[in-house]
Amino acid sequence: MNECIEVRAPFDGRLLDRVPVTSSGAIENALTTAYQLFRNRRAWLDLPRRIAILGAVRDIVLERRNELALLVASESGKPLRDSLVEIDRGANCLDICIQQLSTDGGHVVPMGLNVTSAARVAFTQYEPIGLVLGIAAFNHPFNLVMHQIAPAVAVGAPAIIKPSPKTPLSCRALLDIFIEAGLPEGWAQMVLPTDLAMIRKLVSDQRIGFVSFIGSAAVGWSLRSELAPGTRCALEHGGIAPVIVAQDADLDDAVPRLARAAFWHAGQACVSAQRLYCHSDVVDEFVQRLADAGRSMVTGDPVETTTDVGPLITHAENDRIESWVREAIEEGAVAVCGGAKISASCYENTVLLNPAPNSKVSRREIFGPVVGVYTFDDMDDAIASANSVEFAFQSAIFTRDIDRAMHAFRHLDGTAIMLNEHPLFRVDWMPFAGARQSGLGIGGIPATMADMRTEKMMVCRSQALA
Question: Domains of the chain (ranges plus CATH)?
Answer without folding.
Answer: 4-237+438-458 (3.40.605.10), 241-419 (3.40.309.10)
